[in-house]
Amino acid sequence: MGSRWATLIILAAVIGTIPWFFPTGFYFRVAALIWVTALAAVGLQILMGQAGQVSLGHAGFVGIGAYTMALGPKLLGIDVLLCLPLGAAIAGGVAFVVGRPILKLKGHYLAVATLGFGMLVTMVLVNEFALTGGPDGIRVPRAEIGEWRIRGGETFYWITGVALLIGVWIALNLQASPAGRALAALHDSEVAARTVGIDVAKHKLRAFVIAAVYAAVAGGLLALMNGFVTPDAAGFLASIEYVTMVVIGGLASVPGAVVGAALLVLLPQTLTFLHDYEQAAIGLLIMLFMIFLRAGIVPGLAGLLRRKPA
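^ that's the sequence the OP posted. Answer follows.
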């Protein structure tokens, strides 16, 4: 209980205080990108870290949420803000339908199946040019509440920050709940979990749907913030980035997903001075983190702090 509240208080303090140190408005936008990316990573942490299920198609659900923000007003004539919960509902429904057959698979078979789902979403977004704009993408209408038009990096900083806080709170409570303990049991051993009466299929599907909803909300907020969305949001490389964020931050750690997302969003921003060697430097840093902090950044550093000197 105490660690949950400590995590939330620390995250709220970070979100509430770092704007004081931003020299320009550009930093609000970068930080908002961190928060919205971290929200998607937290959802994947529930699936991978808590339930132990691999997914290489997580970005497909991000794309569903993002494109719902663009297509909802165009096709259904509804307000763009209503498209955020609509996108989450669609992604959750798709995850429920897709997850029932593919979650029967295990290991690399499951990874390939989720990869196929992500590629299918990307292909639809690229090839349905008349509907989605194809590879060039599609514009997302600006949101308005009365006379107030939601725009600007600072506004989206606070919107995405609050969304991340809510997402982390839900994930931490899930982890500590009976359902979370059931997920931990099947993460360790599906056979043992089934032996003690846990409905393994139901809990795996639930984690898959929850992760999809997180991803869709993150995708919707990202589309709303950028005012534009392309199929890259649902691409394979985006899925790999989300997996890397969760693993490098710490699979077993909800705050680790946030730290991993922050690291992978910030590194390209801070290593631009290396020019052609930027990607090589990022890869080297990731390798070093995995070699010296094998449990992930947050669990690894926590273990080092708890270790008493000999």
